[in-house]
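Exercise 7. Given the encoded structure of a 366-residue chain, write a plausible sequence.
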C-alpha cells in the first residue's frame, strides 16, 4: 500500500459559508476543507469489532466513506465528531443514510477491545463500524495517510491512565472513490448537513469537482460562527456550565465560561465535582491536524475579561464518575479561586449532539 503523500505538502483551501460578494455568480459552498488534488481511496485491511476482516476500499465501494482515527476514552474530539455525524444522519432519508459508511479506526488498540468499540459506537449510531488491529498495523495505516502516528500522553505515574494524541480530522471519500474534502475538529452539524447530501447525490464526482473549482476561482474564505454568553459571585460570572453526556462511565468533559468583571486578576487553582472522584483542568494542544490533551495546573482569569472553557481548548475533565451521567442530570462543580475563594456552580448534562446549541444558550447551566 503506497503512502498517500498529500497532507504535508498539499495546499488546503478553506471555503466560505456564505454567498459571493458583489456581482459574482452564486456558487453553493462546501463547508469542509478542500484538497488541492483529489485523493484516491486507499486499500487497507484491519479487523472490525465483530472479528471479521474489513477491507476499507472494498467494504465502502460506491458509498460516501467517512474515515476517522480516534479512541473511545477521548472526552472531546472523538465523541463530538461521532455525535455530530450521527445527528445529521438521523435527519436524512433511510436511502441516503444507507449510502454513508462511517468507519472509526482506534488509535488505542490496547484499551479499545472489540466489545468496547462496538458498545461505544452504538451510543452514536449502530451503523458505525469500529476497526482495530495490532499497533504496527494501525501505525502503518496512519503513515499511509501521511499522518503522524498517535501517541500516548500519560496523566501520572499510573501507566494505565493516559490520553492519546491523534489526528483530529475526518476524511470524506465521495462515492466515486476519491476524497475531495476533509473535516477538521470544529466542523458543526450544519456543515455536515450542508455537505453530506451533496456527496451522497453525486455518484461520479463531476458535480463535486465543478463546484469546488468554482469556489476556488471565487477565492472564498471560511467563516466560523462564534457564540457566547451568563451564576454570579462578587464580580465573577459562570456561563454555559454544561457537561457532555459521556458514552462510558470512565470520564466526562465539562465546559463553562468564567467572566471576571473585577479590576483584579484571579486564578482557578483547583476544581472538584460531586459526581466524580477527580476533576482536572485539561487543555487540547497541537497544531493543524494533530491534537492531544494535557493537564494544566491553573486557569488565569484576567481582569474584566471572559475565559471560555470550550471544545478544542481548555476544559474540565471529570474522572472516575461515581455513576452514569444521562441527559438532564446536573453535576455540581466546586471552583477554588486564589482571590475570590470557593465558587459553586451546577452544570447540566447534555448529549454531545446538542452541545453546540447548549453552549450558545445563556440559560443552560446557570
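Solution.
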Amino acid at each position: 500500500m503506497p503512502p498517500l503523500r498529500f497532507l504535508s505538502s498539499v495546499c488546503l483551501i478553506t471555503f466560505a459559508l456564505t454567498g459571493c460578494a458583489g456581482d459574482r455568480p452564486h456558487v453553493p459552498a462546501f463547508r469542509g476543507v478542500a484538497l488541492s488534488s483529489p485523493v484516491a481511496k486507499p486499500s487497507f485491511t484491519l479487523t472490525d469489532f465483530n472479528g471479521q476482516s474489513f477491507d476499507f476500499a472494498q467494504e465502502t465501494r460506491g458509498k460516501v466513506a467517512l474515515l476517522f482515527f480516534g479512541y473511545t476514552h477521548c472526552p472531546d474530539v472523538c465523541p463530538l465528531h461521532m455525535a455530530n455525524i450521527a445527528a445529521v444522519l438521523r435527519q436524512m432519508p433511510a436511502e441516503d443514510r444507507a449510502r454513508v459508511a462511517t468507519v472509526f479506526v482506534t488509535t488505542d488498540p490496547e484499551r479499545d477491545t472489540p466489545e468496547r468499540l462496538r458498545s461505544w459506537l452504538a451510543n452514536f449510531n449502530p451503523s458505525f463500524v469500529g476497526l482495530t488491529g495490532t499497533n504496527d498495523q494501525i501505525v502503518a495505516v496512519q503513515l499511509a495517510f501521511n499522518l503522524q502516528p498517535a501517541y500516548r500522553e500519560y496523566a501520572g505515574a499510573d501507566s494505565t491512565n493516559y490520553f492519546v494524541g491523534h489526528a483530529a480530522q475526518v476524511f470524506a471519500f465521495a462515492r466515486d472513490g476519491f476524497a475531495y474534502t476533509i473535516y477538521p475538529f470544529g466542523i458543526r452539524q450544519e456543515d455536515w448537513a450542508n455537505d453530506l447530501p451533496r456527496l451522497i447525490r453525486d455518484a461520479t464526482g463531476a458535480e463535486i469537482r465543478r463546484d469546488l473549482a468554482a469556489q476556488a476561482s471565487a477565492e472564498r474564505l471560511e467563516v466560523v460562527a462564534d457564540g457566547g454568553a451568563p451564576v454570579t459571585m462578587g464580580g465573577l460570572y459562570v456561563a454555559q456550565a454544561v457537561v457532555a453526556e459521556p458514552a462510558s462511565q470512565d470520564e466526562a468533559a465539562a465546559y463553562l465560561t468564567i467572566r471576571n468583571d473585577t479590576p483584579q486578576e484571579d486564578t482557578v487553582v483547583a476544581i472538584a465535582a460531586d459526581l466524580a472522584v477527580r476533576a482536572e483542568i485539561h487543555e487540547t494542544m497541537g497544531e493543524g491536524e494533530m491534537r492531544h490533551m494535557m493537564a494544566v495546573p491553573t486557569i488565569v482569569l484576567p481582569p474584566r475579561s471572559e475565559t471560555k472553557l470550550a471544545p478544542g481548548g481548555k476544559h474540565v475533565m471529570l474522572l472516575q464518575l461515581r455513576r452514569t451521567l444521562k441527559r438532564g442530570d446536573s453535576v455540581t462543580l466546586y471552583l477554588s479561586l486564589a482571590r475570590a475563594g470557593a465558587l459553586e456552580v451546577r452544570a447540566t448534562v447534555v448529549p454531545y449532539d446538542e452541545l453546540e446549541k447548549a453552549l450558545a444558550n445563556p440559560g443552560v447551566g446557570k
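Remark. The chain has a mean pLDDT of 82. Students should compare their own answers with the one above.
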